[in-house]
Amino acid sequence: MLLYLRLLKESFAFAMNALRNNKLRTMLSLLGVTIGIFSIIAVLAAVDSLDRKIKNDLSSLDKNTIYLTSQSFGPTDIPRWKREQFPNVTFDEYQYMKTALKHVENSCFQYFTVNQNITYESITSEAVNMVAVTAEFVDVQRMEFSQGRFFNDAESYSGKQVVVLGYDIAQNLFEGNDPIGKTVRMYGQRFTVIGVTKKKGSSGIDIGGGDDTSAFFPSTFLRRIYGDNNPQVLPVIVIKPEKGTDIDALKGDISQKLRNFRGVKQGDIDNFFINILSGLTDMIDGLLGSLRVGGIIISFFSFLVGGFGIANIMFVSVKERTSLIGIQKSLGAKNKFILLQFLFEAIILCLIGGLIGLVIVWLLAMLLTNVLDFEFVLGLGNIIIGTGLSVFVGLVSGILPAISASKLDPVEAIRSGM
């Protein structure tokens, strides 16, 4: 054990000596490893951070949450011309489904609609995400508030002109002052602010709003303006199943009841879509997985260049230390000792390059986290992957130079060194 520790110490000394004596050559050789580690770990860290952010944003919703609407959230075999003929879901259908369905914890009616400006005195927030919903939305979405409250059933069904502002919208309009009870203008009319949502941070994905740049108000108000068949709105029935519910059975129940309500003939396809949030998250996971694979494949070529660079510097190192190798062998050093010495040196050089790459990723993550409203995280798992890849590249690129050094004849090595 002591022998291997000594061997490791000597290999580290030789690697440091190579860096000191041939700074430019060694740094150019390490550049490939550094870029390779930086590329792979940067991609993995970015994808992991995005994945973490999306899952955090969707954590307020049950993955089994169902969105019943005329549009599909994912790929579908139904042709576009046929989908365009599907009628929108209506508020009457929502009320019927609310009473007819079993094993449903809660449900709400919502309009996906175009962005609008909101004005308070001389200050305007532009392109605000407008979320027109019934009062049950607060329980379906599990919303939290920094101030005030959500609108109640009476305000919801009467279409009272009240609004709950996202945190960023409230900060922009009221500049830190208390917004509760103040009046803002949107849709050309006055709305009273009754609540402000708790800050969530920028969202990777928001289903039906919920982020800091949204405004929530009764859907009945929007229905009075646009009706149920206006191209500027997409009505949606949001259904949150009870825990432990058989989702496939619930989907079948939803389909049967809505078909009966609409009078869809037997043999005809459903003229609506039952979108499940878990299907969307699976699609997102697949997309993020493809990004990971694509990044790794691209970064592989950097590793290839880095490996060639390390192999080159190790062959040069063997050439420069041929006489020293001969002396070591003549004093009794075994082939295994020489092989491990050069192999450890290659691994240490790659570790140095890899650590530089990891430090660059860490600094970049800190910078972007401070500049952007998004948390980039360099996790322990990615650090271990980066370190492991550095060791692997050092092992592969150093094995041939190490073998050539271990097979040198001591006499010929000393003579050629002289």
Automatic annotation (TrEMBL):
Cross-referenced InterPro entries: ABC3_permease_C (IPR003838), MacB_PCD (IPR025857), Macrolide_Exporter_MacB (IPR050250)
The UniProt record lists the keyword Kinase: no
Transmembrane segments: 26-47, 296-316, 337-364, 376-400
GO molecular function, one term: transmembrane transporter activity
First-listed, main subcellular location of the protein, grouped into a coarse class: membrane
GO CC annotation, single: plasma membrane
Keywords: Cell membrane, Membrane, Transmembrane, Transmembrane helix
Membrane topology: Multi-pass membrane protein
This protein's record includes keyword Signal: no
Compartment(s): Cell membrane
Domain called ABC3 transporter permease C-terminal: residue spans: 296-410
Family: Belongs to the ABC-4 integral membrane protein family.
Listed name of the protein: FtsX-like permease family protein
